[in-house]
Amino acid sequence: MSLLTHVNYFAVVLLMVAGLYIVFSSGNLVRRMIGLALFQTSTGLFYISLAKVAGGTAPIRVEPDSETARELSSRVDPGYAAQYAIDGVVYSNPLPHVLILTAIVVGVATLAVGLAIAARVREAYGTLDAGEIADADRKAGRGPVP
Amino acid sequence: MTVLSAPLISLIVDVALLAMLLVIAVSIAVTRSLLASILLMSVYSLIVAVWFVVLDAPDVAFTEAVVGAGVSTIVLLGATLLARAETEKRNWRNIIVPLLVALGTGAILLYAVTGLPEFGDAASPANQHVGRGYLETTPEEIGVPNVVTAVLASYRGFDTLGETVVIFAAGIGVALMLGFGERSLAGREPVISPRNGNHHVVLRVVAKLLIPLIALFAFYVQFHGDLGAGGGFQAGVILAVAVVLHALVFGLRDTMAAVKPGFARGVAALGVLLYAGVGVVCIINGGDFLDYDRLFTPDIEAQIPDWILPSDKPHHWGQHFGILLVELGVLLTVAATMVTIFYGFAGRLTDDPQESGT
Amino acid sequence: MISFETLYAAPPDLLRHAPVLLVAGPLIGACAAALAPSSRWAWMISVGATIFALWMALGVIGEVARKGVLDYYLGGFAPPAGIAFRIDGLGATMALLIAFMGAAVSLYSGHSLRAEVRHEKQTLFQSGFLLCQAGMLGLVSTGDAFNAFVFLEISSIGTYALVALGSRRDRRALPAAFTYLVMGTIGATFFVIGVGFLYAATGTLNMEDLALRLTPLSESRVVQAGFAFIFVGLGLKAAMFPLHGWLPGAYTFAPTAIAAFLSATATKAAIYLMARFAFTVFESDDAFVQGFLFWALAPLAAVAAIVCSLQAAFEKDVRRILAFSSVAQAGYILLGLAVGTVLGVSAGLLHLLAHALMKGALFMAVGAATLAVNARTLTDFAGAGRDAPWTMAAFTMAAASLMGMPLTLGFLSKWRLIEAALAQNQVWIVAVIAVSSLLALVYVSRMFEAVFLRAPAQGAPRVKEAPVGVLVPLLILAGLSIWLGIDASLPEALADAGARALFGVSP
Questions:
Q1: Cis peptide before C80, with omega less than 30 degrees from 0?
Q2: Angle formed by the axes of helices C318-339 and C267-275, to 10°?
Q3: Residue B357 pLDDT > 60, yes or no?
Q4: Largest Cα–Cα distance of chain A, in whole Å?
Q5: In DSSP terms, which residues pair with B33 in a beta bridge?
Q6: Chain C partners of A46 at a C-beta cutoff of 8 Å?
Q7: Interface of A with C in 35-94 (CB under 8 A)
Q8: CA B324 to centroid of chain Cα atoms
Q9: Mean pLDDT value across residues A62-71
Q10: Contact present, C401 and C356 (Cβ < 8 Å)
Q11: Do C349 and C493 contact (CB within 8 A), yes or no?
């Protein structure tokens, strides 16, 4: 464990903290959604960091013994390759990539629905500020609002 | 240290990009302008996409670029137009408690990440067990070079069905909130209209040339997914962008006449039905749900002439065909839902000062 | 003891695929409803799809009774490479509950939507409702940690908009739904972070495989942090005290069909997943899990049961009373889990079933009484007992179960909980239940007083009797709260099967 070997994870943690802070500190509903998007994106950075294999390449299988395969395998040290390579080429881990593809899609879906609700809030209350919305509700009392 | 056996340059790029991300995140947290935070968020996504490329994840990078930097920004700007740009009011109470919550979470995270294997460790559990298994078995079981596509559409194809349903649900959610843009069709002039802005002839001609090219590129991305980065999701977003461009240049009303909101809604549902339908066909043919190897029953396979499908060689026709169909389902749902979401937001923006934002 | 084999009848071919058809049915129904030409068609599709899901759930529970555990490999790939459904006694019980409540709410929504939601939105409402149900059914069936996240989000994303629609377009539903969305998304993201930690430590996402590989790793800080993130995330989704801030607003202003469905199922599904992780993925006798159950879950559940009951006792809005009571009652369920024995979990599950039936019935009854007029506060309900006798009879039955009157299911489940706590010498749990029940007595009596004793104000709009289409599902739910309290063999067998499945004990 040293700063250098875990620098990605430390950065990801800081980004998550920033995202959470923006969500909770913003009174503005759209800015809360931005914070949420930032928080979700940093989760993606975490997963993709896990998937990186040193000396690896994108998980797209190349033809064994092709020009590309030879070029890729020349980049890594033979002892390392013997242990981790598949047909001479070292690949990064595809599974977290797939998971994060799904998570990105879920993120944009949430963003769209959240902003649609925020837009309606603005139409109904004339403001996007959470504090002003709460004030408006308090002023209107508990009676039914048409 | 294993990290240094990787090319040093990629580590430097990695750290530099992360530093940029941190600076942007802090700027978003500090700025009070809504517009600035949206634009910063867009830049953030773009840098994240570049960073994904550095970390060998081109598929994810592609998606992040089209979704994070593209769609998210459009939707954020749309919502902000509906709300008009606002700057935020702040007080101290709104800073201290959130900071404590965020830092508390961060402390637990820090405690945990120091226990993680080194960055880039090929021997870590994450990079050994199932993930490595996919790399080894994909050529013989699925037969496509892009392992991400194989996992996405076949091994974990059920997750991708769920992902498609999530997008469909988002379309329904936005339509429930904002409608299908009926407001702009009901006689009022939408903001996105040729009347607003000097849309002269050059713009129109260029757009007319570009739209088919964008659509063509979408199909390239769609069918290239087996071989390299790309697939139904990215292609769907790109296809939707062609529609958005049409609306921006020729006006929302013309676009809605060409691609009707009801049509978009139907296509979104059909995409999910196609995906789930493939699963049901697999069941009818005696396999499990989404078991593409059962897409062709032996009876059907026997009728395919030998020169198309040599019966003695190993083949993955079921898998190829299954992946093709489900990716098509993803394309339909994503493109149609993105158009629906765009209509929802754009249709609320009317020229009538009494209407918009009230 | 009732035998589950008698509960269903489905052809064997269909039965083999029942686990996936259970989810695919409502999913395909949701697409069909979005394509439906009119809201009436959409409603009929919704009823058809939920009844199909109920049929499949009965098939699943019969198969589980016969075989113990159902494994279903999606795409034909064996786990851990592929995603597998793994339904045991607990999953089957939850699936049956969700399918049953879905069918009841779907029937009810035919009339309630007409009063509460604008006509042109009703088609999409049904579509979103079916997606929500499909998501929850998938959540309780899947054996894959990441797939669970996907289903968690399927069940949530459409729901946010359904809540935001608001009962009678009440604008307060909008900020309430927004808060729900933000908190729900943070919860889901925490869950993903937690699953990421577990994946980093083990390299797998399949729950069974995780359980196997986590056994030697329980000291690892990565695993422990993963556990913490998963629980905070699910705690947000389950509105576990003190993470329940989003729930009262969401349930108060949502259309009553959604409030009834969510209160009966959504938080329960999150609690299910929590139990799944605590007892199946992690070892229940692991020191870390034991410490968590005793030092975190039990105190929080106890505080919820008392504080939120107290809040309910001071509320004036009937739906808010019910919403706060939901958080308090979830406290009982979590107390059952926190006892950490087969008896305790079984009692918690029994209360889960009991609460689903009664809270579903109560929200429906409130909705049924307000089809004609917009009644919200206790005062608005004055004299409702005379104006809408059938609706209020159902309301009374369910409320009796809520306060734990003898001969109701609500009484029985609390009794079992007390027995389980005493078996572990945890007398303080008994005290918590006693205090909280007393408070429940207070808020239920306040509702009874308004409904039966108070005379309506002069000229105030009067509550009207609901149509038959609403009364039938309502009376079924309320009647079950009583009938199952008298003959409890079915819910007890379900709860027992669930608890035994969690601990891996054969019956």
A1: yes
A2: 10
A3: no
A4: 76
A5: B87
A6: 193, 196
A7: 36, 39-40, 43, 46-47, 50
A8: 18
A9: 84
A10: no
A11: no
Please indicate whether, in this complex, the C-beta atoms of C189 and A39 are within 8 angstroms of each other: yes
Condensed to tens digits (0 to 9), the pLDDT of residues C400-409 reads: 999 888 899 9
Tell me whether residues C203 and B125 touch, CB distance under 8 A: yes
pLDDT of residue A6: 87
Longest distance between any two alpha carbons in chain C, whole Å: 71
Q: Do C27 and B279 touch (CB under 8 A)?
A: no
Please name which of C290, A17, C476, A95 lies closest in space to residue B128, comparing C-alpha atoms.
Answer: A95
What is the per-residue pLDDT across B268-325, written as a single tens digit (0 to 9) for each? Answer: 999 999 999 999 999 988 889 999 988 887 777 777 777 766 666 666 788 888 999 9
The full length of chain A comes to 146
DSSP secondary structure string for all residues of B141-168 = HT--SBHHHHIIIIITHHHHHHHHHHHH
Q: Which of residues 78-107 of B touch A (CB under 8 A)?
A: 78-80, 82-83, 86, 88-90, 94-95, 97-99, 101-103, 105-106
Closest CA in chain B for residue A124: B358
Query: Touching check for C479 and chain A: CB below 8 Å?
Result: no
CA distance C246 to chain A (A): 14
Taking the C-alpha atoms of residue C44 and residue C41, their distance in angstroms, rounded to an integer, is 5
In angstroms, the CA B162 to CA A101 distance is 12
- Say if C165 is an interface residue toward chain B (CB within 8 Å): yes
Kindly identify which residue of chain B lies nearest to residue C125, measuring between CA atoms: B176
Quick: pLDDT tens for C249-280. Answer: 999 999 999 999 999 999 999 999 999 999 98
Q: Report the interhelical angle of C221-237 vs C173-202 (nearest 10°).
A: 160
Q: By CA distance, what is B87's nearest residue in A?
A: A28
State whether residue C218 sits within 8 Å of chain B by CB.
no
For the CA atoms of chain C, what is the radius of gyration?
A: 21
Number of inter-chain CB pairs under 8 A, A vs B: 328
Q: Which phi and psi angles does C73 have, rounded to 5°? A: -95, 115
Chains that touch A (3 or more CB pairs under 8 A): B, C
Q: Measured in Å, how far apart are chain C's first and last C-alpha atoms?
A: 12
Residue pairs spanning A and C at CB distance below 8 A:
87
B155 touches chain C (CB under 8 A): yes
Rg (CA), chain B: 24
Q: Which residue of C has its CA nearest to B278?
A: C75
Confidence (pLDDT) at B186? 62
Q: Which string of DSSP letters, residue by residue, matches B187-223? A: TSPBSSSTTTTT--HHHHHHHHHHHHHHHHHHHHHHH
Cβ count near B54 (within 10 Å): 17
Q: Suggest the residue from A17, A32, A66, A84 to mutate for an interface test with chain B (most B CBs closer than 10 A).
A: A17
Residue contact B117–C200, C-beta within 8 A: yes
Mean pLDDT of C317-346: 93
CB count in 10 Å sphere of residue C116: 25
| Distances, alpha carbon B112 to alpha carbons A50, B286, C196, C248, C296, in Å | 14, 46, 11, 34, 19
Residue identified by tokens 């989704």 is C237
* Subunit contact B166:C154, Cβ cutoff 8 A: yes
CB contact C172 to A (< 8 Å): yes
CB of B122 within 8 A of CB of A85? no
Looking at chain B, the whole-number percentage of residues with pLDDT higher than 70 is: 84
Q: How far is CA B198 from the centre of its chain?
A: 32
Return all residues near C116 (Cβ < 8 A) that are at least 6 apart: C167, C168, C255, C256, C257, C367
Cα–Cα distance for residue pair C88/C70, rounded to 1 Å: 6
Each residue's pLDDT tens digit, C360-372: 999 999 998 888 7
